TrEMBL record:
MF (Gene Ontology): methyltransferase activity
One GO term (biological process): methylation
Protein name listed in UniProt: Class I SAM-dependent methyltransferase
EC number: 2.1.-.-
Keywords annotated in UniProt: Methyltransferase, S-adenosyl-L-methionine, Transferase
Source species of the chain: Rhodococcus jostii
TM spans (from-to): none
Methyltransferase domain: residues covered: 39-133
A Pfam family recorded for this sequence: Methyltransf_25
Broad EC category: transferase
Amino acid sequence: MTGRPWDASYHEGPAPWDVGRPQPAVVRVASEGGFAGAVLDAGCGTGENALHVASVGFQVLGVDVAETALAIAREKAHDRRIEVEFALADAFQLDRMGRRFDTVLDCGLFHTFDAAERPRYVASVASVTEPGGTVYVLCFSDAGPDTGPHPVSREELRAAFDPGDGWKVAAIEPDRIETRFHDNGAPAWFATIERIQPTGGSAR
Ligand SMILES: C[S@@+](CC[C@H](N)C(=O)[O-])C[C@H]1O[C@@H](n2cnc3c(N)ncnc32)[C@H](O)[C@@H]1O
């Protein structure tokens, strides 16, 4: 559990990514009916995306390693009277929760992991995603100008979700991530990834 450094980023005012509203990409996908069933927001921060998805009618669990972010998220949920659960959990060990999800949202978490960490993270996501479920990843892209920190190439993103491990990358589209230091957002990828239904055997 690597909570302490992440937690510190929430101690002195909003963190650079904490824009105080849901990401436009998340609002768009929600309005298009892209969420289904039980939803996990992995690395939820102060909860704007989870709160938005819950506000349109879904059962949402937001998890993070930063206790301070979770406390802020819970306060927002209380103030806005939105029913949503926020819990401390490590994205590398999601199976420890003993829960499964039909939709997993990763908004700005994947791109914080280096190449060596990604397989472990993706396996952890696999362990909690229902067969037929969908994973959305919104991450900084390397298609500049004015890229965010730790930008990811389309190829790296695609390669992380291997068909041999039960994934189908349905789409990786150019998008934007709003931050507190980009006027019109930073270049991003929005990936739609499906967890394959097992055919005979089980999806790994
Ligand atoms: C760039 S922020 C994005 C936060 C939020 N999704 C948003 O859009 O505002 C990344 C978040 O992931 C969390 N995080 C980092 N490593 C994590 C891990 N191993 N497990 C769970 N959360 C993690 C951080 O605490 C931070 O809140």
